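Lab notebook: predicted structure, single chain.

Context: the supervisor wants predicted structures on file for every construct in the current expression panel, including those that have not yet been purified. This is the next one on the list. No modifications to the sequence; it matches the entry in the shared construct table.
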Amino acid sequence: MTDKERRNKMKALIYLERALALDEKHFFFQLIDDETIHVTDIESGNSRLVNVACDNIPAMLYDILKQAGAWIM
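Prediction complete. Output recorded below exactly as produced.
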């Protein structure tokens, strides 16, 4: 993954955090590597790892919601 791709994926995760915060759901998403996102519930401190293909930003967001959506929502 290039530096530009990594920066854009990190920005997308920040936008997802902000969108969830509008509904009082406070999470922190950290891009660990090309295949892993660390998701932390800020209020409870609970966290989990999500495996993502990270081919592109929409695929990454889809994988996050598919694997952790029930927990996040």
